[in-house]
Amino acid sequence: MTAVADPPTGRSAKPPSDDGRSAEEVASDKRRGRVGMFLILPGFVFLLLFFAAPVVVLLAMSLYARPPGAEVGEFVPALEFGNYVTVISAYWEALLRSFVFAGIATVAALLIGYPMAYLVAVRLRNRRLLSGILLVLLIAPFFSSFILRTQAWKQILADEGVVVEVLRAVSILPPDGRLTATAFAVVCGLTYNFLPFMTLPIYASLERLDIRLLEASGDLYASPWTTFRKVTLPLSAPGVFAGTLLTFIPASGDFVNAALLGNNRDTTMIGQVIDSRFFRVVDYPGASALSFILMVAILILVLIYIRRFGTKELF
Fold first, then answer.
1. Which InterPro entries does this one have (predicted)?
2. Distance between CA 41 and CA 33 in Å, rounded?
3. N or C: which end of the chain has fewer CB atoms below 10 A?
């Protein structure tokens, strides 16, 4: 029998793509891709204008030079790489001290914030009202000014305050001992001010924790410590990872706590130095060089931390 050809449909059939999809599906994917590009374009432009461009300006300013006989604050474009050598040799102790203070504050915030987040997210999960109240208390520091919170710590740790008097009474501090203008006060201020940045990401991870996993661990005769170490802590690792970064990065460049709670040579942080070079000494190239060095140093430390303690291998 002779096969009868199908009648023409009025449009030619489009061959499928290499991966087996039809031409209509390929065109639809392209349209979605263009829509996605338009959606991220505003954010990309925002980052370009308010992050990338200022960094480029900062880098250019760090290479400016002061011509002979120029007035204070007068600089000209140049390629003066010696600015970096000058500021590093003069302020490397403050830079190192900033990272040490920030690291101690980050560890302290983790030791304080993790139990708080665990209590609210896991232990009180079935008591919605109480957990909600405690969650509000966790973010309550955000309701007041950063400077006011730091000033409050200055009053708490003041020489005539209750804390110092009690420590002197129990002989922890000598009769003429003090807490303000010390590294201890600065670290306390950093820990307190950045504690919510540590606690909230951990709470977000623990809030999604399946309680049945903890119950199953207990049914398998695991001790509470083993359950925490083998189940709870690994599942909350993304929150710990995010919290440590959110705490360490801003704490490294902070200058408010060091200025209000320390304000001496032994507590000077790099943020204070940058502030002084910009607004008091009017050394724009030096301040820009310090700012760029701080940014690069933080970036290197963060990359090392991510590579060594990525969330999949954190615990």
1. MetI-like, MetI-like_sf
2. 12
3. N
pLDDT tens-digit profile, the chain (315 residues) = 445 555 555 444 455 555 566 667 666 667 776 777 788 888 889 989 998 899 999 999 999 998 887 788 788 888 899 999 999 999 999 999 999 999 999 999 999 999 999 999 988 888 888 888 988 888 888 888 889 999 999 999 988 888 899 988 888 888 888 888 899 999 999 999 999 999 999 999 999 888 888 888 888 888 889 999 899 999 999 999 999 999 999 999 998 999 999 888 889 999 999 999 998 888 999 999 999 999 999 999 989 988 877 655 444
Long-range contacts of 223-230 (CB under 8 A, 24+ apart): 229/315
User: How far, in Å, CA of 219 to CA of 293, rounded?
Assistant: 53
Which residues are CB-contacts of 98 (< 8 A; sequence separation ≥ 6)?
252, 253, 269, 270, 271, 294
Token pair for residue 38? Answer: 């338009």
Q: Could you say which DSSP state residue 121 is in?
A: I
Q: Please state, in angstroms and rounded to a whole number, the distance separating the CA atoms of residues 248 and 243.
A: 8
Quickly count: other Cβ atoms within 10 Å of residue 192's Cβ. Answer: 20
Which residues make Cβ contacts (< 8 Å) with residue 14, sequence separation at least 6? 22, 23, 24
Residue 284 tokens read as 């724009």
All domains in the chain, ordered by first residue = 82-308 (1.10.3720.10)
